[in-house]
Amino acid sequence: MRKGIYILPNLFTAGSLFAGFYCMVSTLNGDYKTAALWILASSIFDGLDGKVARMTGTSSKFGVEFDSLADVVSFGAAPGLLMYCWALKPFGRLGWLAGFLFLSCAALRLARFNVQVDTVESKRFVGLPTPAAASMVSATVLLFYHFGWPSSYIKLAILILIYFLALLMVSNVRYYSFKDPGIFKRQPFAFLVLAVLILIVVAAEPVLMLFTLFIGYILSGPVGFIMTWPRRRRLEKALRKGHEEMAGGVKKHP
Fold first, then answer.
1. Exposure pattern of 157-171 as b/e (b: 16+ CB <10 Å)?
2. Which of 83, 155, 199, 227 has the highest CB neighbour count under 10 A?
3. What digits encode the pLDDT tens for the residues 108-123?
4. Which of these, 212, 80, 226, 221, lies nearest to 158 by C-alpha position?
5. Single pTM value for the model
């Protein structure tokens, strides 16, 4: 700390924290649509701070800790409060417990990430990333406003969604991190055409497409987990068999 801190990446982190706090202010004022938009703004700032730090060589332990604390507010407390005030209040205790569970799982997810950051494959996240979970909350609120649905519409589905997102954050389900350096290397021309088409579709129906993209990303984890289950079971059995054979060999030849 005596050597100082890097200003630029931490300014982006502070921007993410500000967006999360203003989301809570908008929620308390009853402006839920604005609150949802500020969660998305916080996600953008959160994505930029790490990239700026890596590009400028200004990564630091202080920045990592500051980013995690900001994420607890922006992607734990803010969306939890938003969903409780917007749709879960009629459920009483079950509703505010859902908001608290979301906050707790976000904090646990971030703590586990900080502990495992040097031991887990960088291409995959273990558990649903907190910005994705919070953005899903934001996209759900915006979808309801887009179609003019009241917050009382399919309340039970919203409650289930919050519990589902919370549990995914602390699960061992793996998600693609978009940190693969190969993404930024030369790609076939068709990839550029596909990216342009996706941008056009998103621009045509931004709320609907954002919801679709987020729900698709969130479901990709459980679907991939189920599809790779047989292969993981075979690998575990092979490893277990190998350990047993090695243990038997040690006993025979002390």
1. ebbebbeebbebbbb
2. 83
3. 999 998 887 666 666 7
4. 80
5. 0.84
